[in-house]
Amino acid sequence: MTTATSAQSGQRSSDSGERGLQRQGSSQLTTSQGKTAIADGVVSKIAGMAAREVSGVYRMGSGASRAFGSIKERVGGGSPNVSSGVAVEVGETQAAIDLDLVVEYGVSIIDLAQSVRRNVISSVERMTGLEVTEVNIAIDDVHLPNEQDEQTDEAPPRVR
Questions:
Q1: Which of 85, 105, 152, 157 lies at a C-alpha separation of 20 to 30 Å from 113?
Q2: How confident is the model over 38-62, as pLDDT tens digits?
Q3: What pTM does this model have?
């Protein structure tokens, strides 16, 4: 095994606009015994679940994707899509993640974004071994306490 260089010693790079956090040694995904490839969908599901775990996240996805997902659940009888509102870009050793969130009224958006970012990075890095270079968060809406869910606004289905 090779010795870690100064660029790989866990120090942050200050001359780059990226996060710059390097792992010690080579990537955990490439070993002398083979390579491990992780699909975008895997990272997307992990990030979606990690974001939803944070208190104050009401729902995920932009208005259009939430409406489409709601219709799809009712018509197809499918389960909720945990990767709704999540877009990822996965390379050999790194991942970048974009999240669309609806937050609950009264929650500090800045604190929520920091908590979501921390939880997503921790979960993805722990479960996949990928370095998360960035987590971009877009707040698309605020859920007010007196608003009804979109699902309860419509008449019940005529057939089951």
A1: 152
A2: 999 999 999 999 999 999 999 999 7
A3: 0.69
